[in-house]
Amino acid sequence: MALTDLSEIRMIMERHGIAPQKKFGQNFLVVPSVVARIADTPGDSSIGIIEIGPGIGTLTEQLAPRYRKVVALEIDTGLEPVLADTLHAFDNVKVVFGDAMKTNLRELVASEFDGGRVAVCANLPYYITSPMILFLLENGSLFDSITVMIQKEVADRLCAAPGTAEYGAITLAVQYACTVEKCFSVSPGSFFPPPKVTSTVIKMTPHEKPPVSVLDKDNMFRMIRAAFDFRRKTLVNALSTCTPKSKEEITSAIVSCGFSADVRGERLSLADFAALSNVFTL
Ligand code: SAM
Questions:
Q1: What structural domains and CATH numbers belong to the chain?
Q2: Interval between CA 100 and ligand 1 midpoint (Å)
């Protein structure tokens, strides 16, 4: 089916009496070359794919012929008759209705992919991009790779360098879990209805083991959260908001790691936070 064809999309929607649901972040892709490029990105045809948010099946129908099996998780049950119609020709596609963020992905992978390798490929709904990425990365060990289209602004944050305005706690959470590659940008005109922002397709490859050695991961992430919750404060002042320990003790730990006493947290790399966390417990 020509699911990227605007008149076809309108006809399908009219036939089923539906319209794009803003509350579910429904912006459907309408440019065939963009859909094909996203579908090509996971790369290895022997793997299975989990897609989040198939919508009317635009990306799904491109993934199905390229990969072993596709399991698509869709929150909007109103799309059930549409997807039954648009994807009926593919016997390697299964659509599961429900909230992807409430899905037990470990169980899903075990039950649907017989222990085979799996990747995620999705045009994510923008209203929950960051929590969805963190949710996928919590389950990162299940996946070969995670290809997602997200707002350019979020992609910039995930790939940001220390000291820049885009650098934040999510940059470090993502760096700890995976490598991130920006693949290509997609303009608002590639969607129906068009979103207000430019999009970027990124491919995340989960690390087999963490890139830094850290004694207490929770301690490190509590430090990171405090540093960016109070990013205008010095690191000493930011950390003192979440520990009973004295500022002198915190300062001495910071200085022992080679930073100046008045450094701000936004200057520290992941390796720096790991080093600090290894000499100081909040
Ligand atoms: N894949 C289609 C495309 O590229 O044209 C649609 C992408 S649209 C940006 C996002 C899709 O995610 C919508 O179909 C929406 O209903 C679905 N969605 C939104 N929140 C979801 C959630 N929590 N779990 C599963 N699907 C969700």
A1: 6-206 (3.40.50.150), 217-279 (1.10.8.100)
A2: 9
